[in-house]
Structure formats: C-alpha cells, structure tokens
Design a protein that fits this description.
DUF899_thioredox, Thioredoxin, about 250 residues, alpha+beta, eight-stranded mixed beta sheet, globular
C-alpha cells in the first residue's frame, strides 16, 4: 500500500484548507442541482395505481398519508430475488438500513415509503427480522414498470394537489447511494428543504434555516423557538448555516 506523505500539523492544515475550497465548490454545485430539480416540470399521474398495505388495498394518493409530498423507493423483495424468503436484495437492504427516523421528513410535509412485489405477510416478516420501520407496500399492478423500476431499484418523488398526483423526479443506479438522510431525500423533492436560504421558485413554502428542527418525538408540541434567526446582515460570519438567498 503506497501511503501519502507524513506531514506536520501546519502542513496538514494547509492541505485540508486547500481541499476545503474544492469541497465547498461541490456543496454549492449540489445546492444548484437541487434548485434545478425544484424547477423540473410536473408529470400528471392519471392511472389509478393500487397497493396492498397492512390495512388493505389503497391508492397512490393514500400513500401520501395526508402530506403534500411522497417518496417511493422500489425495493426488491419478492420470489426470485437472492435471499428470498428471508431477505430482500442486499443493495436494497443496505438502503433500508440507512433510513433514519421519518418524523423529520414528515415535519417537512413529506412521506417516505418502500414498495415491493412481495405480499404483506412476507414484508412484515422481513421488516421484523431486520428491524425496519418504514411503511412498506405491495405493488399490485404496473406501477414498477411505468416508473422505471421494474428491473432495477429506483426512487420516485411525487407531489399532490388535492387528489391530483404528479411525478416530480426520479433517481436510480448510483444516484440512490447518496440517499438515506433527511437532507438527501428533501433535496430530491419538488419543494426541497423548504428553508429560506434555498433558491426556490416564488411562493414555495420556506421557513428559517434550522428553526424547524426538533427531537423526533416532539414535532407538533408547542414550545418556544429554540433558534434565533437574525436578519442576513446581522449574521455572525462563523454561523454554520448557509446564507439566505438575499444575503
């Protein structure tokens, strides 16, 4: 193994600062890509897709659970998949292992669900074995084929206006590797993180950065705001939050 050179603390910090410039460029480029996603056209979903869930047959709009946005990951858990009937596919299982507490996504009016071809008893058994808690539905029709996830995994984002549903984004292959955090999922949605520093179209819902954060068991509780969000001109230059769009 050919290792990098051994450096002094001063030289190590200089190298880190040099790399940090490039890393910040990547961060800003990622922000710009997310802003472009928020301007993607919306594709109407008019087909009456049906899923089996723990409480019976439901439609696509029901998967939103009353929220504005929906993210659906197609996981391969079905006969013929390596590991069946005890496991889902290895890659899909790794993605499932990365899912955190969904209360944070829900607080941004967004629901995340998994969907597979396996029946509900099989899904419940594997979820219990692996310690997974996300909502997980059974595909009963052409949903997977129609949305590009019939032969490979992928993640679709949707938004609804009342009972009308629109497809807003799709990502698969290595793009799924970056998913798993609240931030990565929100960045692929039509509304984004909904924070006031984001470059979003006029009228999109936004609130002060960080102000909406909460303990996952305390969303909805009435409590004093924990973060004082000053005007852009009053921000400390060492404030870790991204600048607002108008700063």
């Amino acid at each position: 193994m050919q290792t990098p050179p051994i450096a002094s603390a001063q030289d190590w910090e200089a190298a880190r600062q040099q790399l940090l410039v490039r890393e910040k460029e990547v961060t800003r480029a990622r922000d710009a890509l997310a802003a472009q996603r928020r301007r993607m056209p919306w594709l109407p979903v008019d087909k009456p897709y049906q899923f089996d869930g723990p409480d019976g047959r439901v439609g696509l709009v029901d998967l939103f659970a009353g929220r504005r946005q929906l993210i659906v990951y197609r996981a391969f858990l079905e006969p013929g998949v390596d590991g069946w009937p005890d496991h889902a596919c290895r890659g899909c299982s790794m993605i499932a292992d990365h899912i955190g507490n969904l209360a944070h996504l829900n607080a941004r009016n967004t629901t995340l669900v998994f969907a597979s071809r396996a029946g509900q008893p099989d899904i419940a058994r594997v979820k219990a074995r692996m310690g997974w808690h996300m909502p997980w539905y059974t595909i009963t029709d052409d949903f997977d084929r129609d949305f590009g996830v019939d032969e490979w995994h992928g993640t679709n984002a949707f938004i609804r206006d009342g009972e009308r549903v629109f497809r807003t984004y799709f990502i698969n292959n290595r793009g799924d590797e970056a998913l798993g955090t609240t931030w990565s999922y929100l960045d692929m949605t039509a509304l984004g993180r909904q924070e006031d520093w984001e470059d979003s179209p006029q009228g999109y819902p936004q609130s002060p950065a960080y102000a909406w954060w909460n303990w996952h068991d305390s969303y909805g509780d009435q409590q004093p705001q924990w973060w004082d969000d000053p005007d852009p001109g009053e921000r400390d230059p060492n404030d870790p939050r991204p600048p607002r769009r108008d700063s």
